[in-house]
Write a structure and sequence with these properties.
Blueprint (H helix, E strand, L loop, with lengths): L20 H6 L8 H15 L2 H10 L11 H23 L5 E3 L3 H9 L5 H20 L3 H7 L2 H22 L3 E3 L10 E3 L8 H18 L5 H19 L32 H6 L1 H29 L12 H17 L5 E3 L3 H6 L6 H13 L3 H4 L4 H4 L1 H14 L8 H17 L2 H18 L8 H15 L7
Antiparallel strand pairs: 1-4, 2-3
Helix pairs in contact: 2-15, 3-4, 3-5, 4-13, 4-15, 5-12, 6-12, 6-13, 8-18, 8-19, 8-20, 9-10, 9-18, 12-13, 19-20, 20-21
């Protein structure tokens, strides 16, 4: 009787990937991507977020510090593009994720409208750098997630919505769609439509058409909707400016530059005073300003990172993102780099999903996006021809997108979180201050949870921060300012 040996069973072999250095470094094939997809994704992300090169200088350049100084627009364009290029490349090489970075909308309004008017520009940017150092310290010590979890989700969403509403109002004001009624009018109404209660002039028409175009493109889910609208409305503004007698467009006149290519102006790089601001506003107010910058970057960045990572399928079965500490560390460094370049805090952009939609899965896409930001350094004259009326419709669109993505996450049936979230989101635009919105929201949350007999549900950190904010608001009454 004969017997035969059983046929050998092949053991599963690990999948083989191309051996090129580029593929191994970025794990391109391992993540199911290709160089072509990464390049397409890098281009898509750049064109989805390139509007920040125009918008950030408009927001920062329209403000004055306590000495009446304004930042140069050309230097701001250079600083914005340079920092976006550097931090995006850094995220690609170190974090190996397709998450691009640039100056954050919201935090730049904090710097322009809250910090700068009470100190010098270098002082204000120094506080941004300090906020970045704090973020990196929290990541290094493993406390970032713990600090984030100390603030309830509903309140975090209220902060995001408040920032969205605030930048919408800034867009309306900067475009001239609404204006402040002078105190001499002896009226209780602080704002009015247009400059005199009516919409007058070609510049305002450009804004209105730009807003309608931007929102229409978003409704139709057109990729790069914001950038397309800015380009189209800038061309229209140039035509109007050439044919009509426009007294003033405000900060920028839409005229074709003699030479669209120019050397970048790095004059703002390194213009930072780390602790000078504390001498102007005091230790407590300075700490709260740094805290406000920190929160403005903190939650938005964390949500963006996890959202883009999930879209790119870079999270594991438990919903965790491998290597997230590297990503968070680069994000903290980006905040500090933004302050060091005077372009305000730099943060992760949700527009990175445009690149992910094109197939980007690795940091190679960021290398492409960062390279394009680097090229834009030499196109400053083109950025300087965009009037605010063509750019600020983007603030309406971004404000809406923030609100629509956050408002359903608030538990409106639990008044102890709904009321603080509501106060946070309305106080930011109504008081023209993100700091006030955060402070009033934190205090309301702590008091209402105590009133409801749920004081044990309030983290110790919330008690401490609420007490600091309460003391901050009481300082004038106590004669300490």
């Amino acid at each position: 009787m004969s017997s035969s040996a059983p046929a050998p069973v092949d053991s599963p072999q690990p999948p083989s990937y191309p051996s090129s250095g580029l593929d191994r470094f970025f794990k391109i094939s391992e993540r199911g991507s290709s160089v072509a997809r990464e390049v397409r994704g890098g281009f898509a992300t750049f064109f989805a977020m390139a509007y920040i090169i125009v918008l950030n200088p408009i927001i920062l350049g329209s403000a004055k510090d306590m000495y009446g100084h304004q930042l140069d627009n050309g230097q701001l364009v250079t600083a914005t593009a340079l920092t976006a290029a550097f931090t995006t490349l850094l995220m690609g090489v170190i974090g190996n994720v397709p998450i691009a970075l640039a100056a954050g909308l919201g935090v730049n309004t904090v710097v322009a409208l809250q910090l700068a008017p009470r100190m010098s520009w270098p002082d204000a940017m120094g506080m941004v750098v300090l906020a970045g150092f704090v973020v990196m310290l929290l990541v290094a010590t493993g406390l970032r997630e713990r600090v984030m979890n100390a603030v309830p989700l509903g309140l975090r969403k209220g902060i995001a919505i408040g920032i969205g509403l605030f930048i919408m109002l800034i867009g309306l004001v900067d475009a001239g769609f609404v204006s402040r009624i002078p105190d001499a009018a002896h009226t209780t109404v602080p704002l009015q439509l247009g400059a005199d209660g009516h919409l007058n002039g070609w510049p305002v028409l450009v804004f209105v058409l730009g807003a309608l175009l931007t929102l229409s493109l978003i409704v139709r889910k057109v990729p790069g909707a914001i950038l397309i609208s800015i380009v189209v409305m800038t061309v229209l503004a140039m035509i109007i400016n050439a044919l009509a007698d426009i007294p003033s467009w405000g900060l920028t006149t839409p005229e074709w530059p003699g030479n669209p290519v120019a050397s970048p102006d790095f004059g703002l790089i390194g213009q930072v005073s780390l602790f000078g601001g504390f001498g102007k506003v005091g230790i407590l107010t300075g700490v709260l300003f740094v805290f406000t910058v920190l929160l403005s970057c903190f939650f938005d960045a964390m949500g963006t990172i996890m959202g883009v990572a999930d879209e790119a399928k870079l999270v594991d079965a438990d919903g965790q993102m491998p290597g997230i500490n590297k990503v968070l560390l680069v994000d903290g460094l980006a905040v500090a780099a933004g302050g060091a370049s005077s372009s305000s805090a730099t943060t992760c952009f949700v527009e990175s999903t445009a690149g992910v939609g094109e197939g980007a899965r690795t940091g190679l896409a960021n290398v492409v996006t960062g390279g394009l930001f680097t090229l834009s350094l030499f196109l400053t004259p083109l950025a300087l021809m965009v009037p605010s009326q063509a750019a600020t419709p983007a603030l309406l669109a971004v404000g809406f997108l923030i609100l629509s993505g956050s408002i359903t996450a608030i538990d409106w049936k639990d008044y102890t979180i709904a009321i603080p979230a509501f106060l946070t989101m309305v106080m930011m635009p109504f008081t023209y201050s993100i700091t006030n919105g955060i402070g009033i929201g934190f205090i309301a949350f702590t008091v209402l949870r105590l009133a409801a007999g749920r004081g044990r549900e309030v983290p110790a950190a919330m008690y401490a921060v609420s007490a600091v904010f309460a003391f901050y608001y009481l300082m004038p009454a106590l004669g300490l300012t």
